[in-house]
Design a protein that fits this description.
The structure holds 2 protein chains of 2 kinds.
Chain A (H helix, E strand, L loop, with lengths): L1 H10 L6 H33 L31 H34 L4 H15 L3 H13 L9 E3 L2 E4 L2 E4 L1 E4 L3 H29 L5 H24 L3 E4 L2 E3 L2 E3 L2 E3 L1 H28 L2 H9 L4 H31 L11 H12 L2 H30 L5
Antiparallel strand pairs in A: 1-2, 2-3, 3-8, 4-5, 6-7
Chain B lengths: L1 H20 L4 H8 L2 E5 L8 E2 L5 E2 L1 H14 L5 E5 L5 H6 L5 E2 L7 H4 L4 E3 L4 E3 L1 E6 L13 E6 L3 H12 L4 E6 L2 H10 L4 E5 H8 L8 E3 L7 E3 L2 E3 L3 H19 L16 H7 L5 H5 L5 H8 L3 H8 L29
The chains are: A alpha+beta, B alpha/beta.
């Protein structure tokens, strides 16, 4: 029997063997694709050389010579290199995206839950919000917010003042806290509070598993995380004097100097991005909660859980499984949409990169860097959300 | 399915290979397609600006038309591509346009590392500052700490940095991609100062709500020689654009205008005879007809006519000739002789 089947297999000619055919055709396709890409690459290099256009990444270490109006966590001056300017742009993109994601998530959850409300006005309000904001192009919204932020605000000399914070059309200026060494005690107290909370939560869960007795973890956490550092702060103040000083912004010449400042471009971008994305997140949250079958809530209530426990322990964990994958896409969208900042002079990666592109003329290298960075950012966000998704997944025993 | 994919891949590869073989002869390409593709600004009055009927006018546009007149004997065989400051060089490098005539400053980097050539200077400019009169500022040296609106991807951005750095003054730059956005942000009060080339200030000022409430400060902080740009490695095309500009300047120097160019046929001045194409074969040497300069002058005018029509004292911009006057009239506009 087996000899017969071997015989039959041997009789099939090589070009009719499905495995060999598949292997050959796939190898061929890959080879042709590789050759095509190689040709494109060679062709580009050849054309660049022929047109005497400089290439390579050497320009990243030459002096940039232009100013950037928002530099975070870096020492950037006009004498810094193009590479550093690029990094400053990247940090601006990261900060905008990160804060935007937090705002959009909070706002989105509120909108999503509002839309499920039994109160007619609240649910229609949320529905109106979603339909309005997700159907207007984002770029238009950015322009509108920029004008909304800029137009009604006075010039620096007529600034509005709210509790030491100055608001004008150049931005929001607030006192900047400066910390002495004694501040570290407060920081340590805060860290100790976090560790303590984690330990208490662990112990409480174990105890509840064993004895069924609940423990008020929430209040303990509040005491440990906020109370402990606050107490430390007062003790340090009494012993070593106030560990926090403030650098107040002052009107000097044209503008305020000193203090902390948020530029209007950032405010406009943040508003536009988070409000736009929140409309989508709201729908995702609504879909997620509605996906949890009504039987689950009834079962939870029948077991005697309170409404809060029902939401926290039964509905939300199951809703999250539906919410997280599309939520990831929205986070990626927000990050990529932040590149529209170039329209209103927020110095993000694309704006700064564009300037570098123009000054050096090395379009291919800059566009390559852009693609690489946005790809890495998106993959990193995806990886994090996939990890979170795996953690929230239905645990099958 | 596999076969389709394969043929697509092969087809793409072949077409890519074919691109390599394309020639660098811009003049032949232009003659073959029948028009000049000219890169201009997105709207800068006096230099390149479309009117309500979509007709482009301006000193930079005139240069494009002059090149078309030299090649085809018809100044209207031009198509315009409006480009932002950021896009302009890539458009030229990639061959999307044949000629960039877009108030572009001639700098060493652009002339070398970008693979471009500047075919002369059609406007000598310098960077200036505009502020609100109400600020009470009379000199650029009083601008310490000011917020400055400008265009991204320009030499302007670099000059501002140099100026404030060398005078140890602080500033905040707010750089927009589109010129109209810059003007709007300045008008809304986002910035204390608006900076660009002085000709640009004169032009953009017209777009402000109350142009009279603003003044241009006396300081000129940079040299901005603006001129037409072509790709490196095509000497014939480079020569043609260069001599088109020279012909316009020479015509003004010799007193040949669009109005008297026909009468000038009778002129005994050998320089005019050469310009008119009556003597010599300068046009043929450039690869066009010997009537090239006649066509330029007849259809577009000489440099002075173009200047007066677009940016001169009688236009809304009201820019005096200054540096752009001929060399024998107190300026530095000078062209090598046609001989």
């Amino acid at each position: 029997m087996s000899a017969a089947s071997e015989h039959a297999e041997a009789k099939v000619p090589l070009w009719n063997n499905p495995r060999v055919r598949a292997l050959v055709s796939q190898t061929l396709l890959i080879a042709v694709l590789a050759w095509a890409f190689w040709t494109i690459f060679q062709n580009t290099v050849h054309n660049l050389e022929q047109r005497k256009i400089a290439s390579g990444f050497g320009f990243l270490s030459t002096t940039a010579g232009f100013g950037i109006n928002q530099v975070l966590f870096l020492e950037y001056t006009e004498a810094s290199s193009y590479g550093k300017a690029f990094l400053a742009g990247l940090l601006n993109t990261l900060v905008l995206s990160f804060i935007g994601i937090i705002f959009a998530t909070i706002l989105g959850f509120i909108i999503g839950i509002m839309r499920l409300s039994h109160n007619w006005v609240i649910s229609k309000l949320a529905a109106g919000y979603v339909e309005f904001f997700r159907n207007i192009p984002l770029l238009l919204q950015i322009f509108v917010w920029y004008n909304v932020v800029l137009k009604p605000l006075p010039g620096p000399r007529q600034s509005l003042e709210v509790a030491g914070v100055f608001i004008n059309n150049r931005g929001v200026y607030s006192p900047k806290p400066l910390f002495t060494d004694a501040w570290w005690f407060v920081v340590f107290a805060f860290i100790a509070g976090l560790i303590g909370t984690w330990a208490v939560a662990r112990w409480a869960r174990k105890r509840q598993m064993e004895t069924g007795q609940p423990f008020p973890v929430g209040w303990t956490a509040l005491g440990l995380i906020i109370g402990l550092p606050l107490a430390t702060y007062f003790i340090v103040s009494l012993v070593a004097g106030n560990p926090v000083h403030f650098d107040y912004p002052e009107l000097k010449g044209f503008n305020y100097r000193g203090g902390m400042r948020i530029i209007p471009e950032f405010v406009a971008m943040l508003l536009a991005l988070s409000i736009y994305t929140a409309a989508f997140i709201g729908e995702i949250v609504r879909a997620g909660i509605q996906a949890v079958s009504h039987g689950q809530t009834e079962a939870a209530l029948a077991l005697g859980l309170t409404r809060g426990q029902m939401l926290r322990l039964v509905v939300i964990p199951q809703a999250m499984r539906v919410i997280i994958p599309p939520l990831t896409s929205q986070y990626l969208n927000l990050t990529k949409n932040s590149s529209l900042a170039v329209a209103i002079a927020y110095p993000d990666l694309v704006a700064v990169g564009g300037t570098i592109l123009n000054q050096t003329g090395q379009a291919i290298e800059i566009i390559g860097l852009w693609m690489l960075i946005y790809l890495s950012l998106s993959l990193a966000t995806s990886a994090f959300m996939n990890w979170y998704n795996a953690k929230m997944r239905l645990v099958e025993r | 399915m596999k076969r389709t994919l394969l043929s697509i891949a092969l087809g793409a590869a072949v077409s890519v290979a074919a691109v390599t073989a394309a020639s660098a002869g811009t003049l032949q390409d232009v003659k073959a397609k029948g028009f000049v593709q000219c890169g201009v600004s997105q709207g800068l009055p006096g230099f390149s600006n479309p009117d309500d009927k979509g007709n482009w006018t301006g000193i930079d546009v005139d240069l494009c038309r002059a090149v078309a007149a030299a090649i085809f004997g018809d100044a209207n065989k031009v198509k315009f591509t409006p480009l932002s400051a950021k896009e302009r060089f890539t458009a030229l490098q990639s061959g999307e346009i044949d000629l960039l005539s877009r108030n572009t400053t001639w700098t060493a980097t652009r002339d070398t590392a970008l693979g471009l050539n500047f075919a002369g200077v059609n406007y000598y400019d310098g960077q200036g500052f505009m502020v609100r009169k109400s600020l009470g500022v009379t000199s650029a040296m009083q601008l310490n700490g000011a917020a400055i609106c400008t265009n991204t991807g320009t030499t302007t951005e670099l000059n501002v940095a140099d100026f404030f750095r060398s005078h140890k003054m602080q500033y905040e730059v707010v750089a927009f991609e589109k010129a109209d956005e810059v003007v709007k942000a300045y008008d809304e009060g986002r910035c204390d100062v608006y900076t660009t080339d002085r000709s640009g200030l004169a032009a953009q000022r017209l777009k402000l709500k109350n142009p009279d409430e603003h003044i241009v400060l006396p300081e000129i902080i940079s040299k901005e020689p603006l001129g037409p740009v072509v790709r490196q490695g095509d000497d014939q095309w480079f020569d043609l654009v260069k001599w088109t500009l020279f012909a316009m300047v020479n015509a003004e120097e010799l007193g040949v205008t669009s109005k008297n160019v026909d009468e000038m046929k009778k002129s005994n001045n050998p320089a005019i005879k050469r310009l008119r194409g009556v003597e010599g074969n300068f046009g043929e040497n450039l690869g066009v007809s010997n009537a090239w300069a006649y066509n330029i002058i007849k259809q577009v005018g000489n440099y002075g006519e173009s200047y007066d029509r677009n940016v001169g004292p009688k236009t809304p911009l009201g820019l005096a000739r200054g540096l752009n006057a001929l060399w024998n009239k107190g300026g530095i506009m000078y062209a090598p002789p046609i001989r």
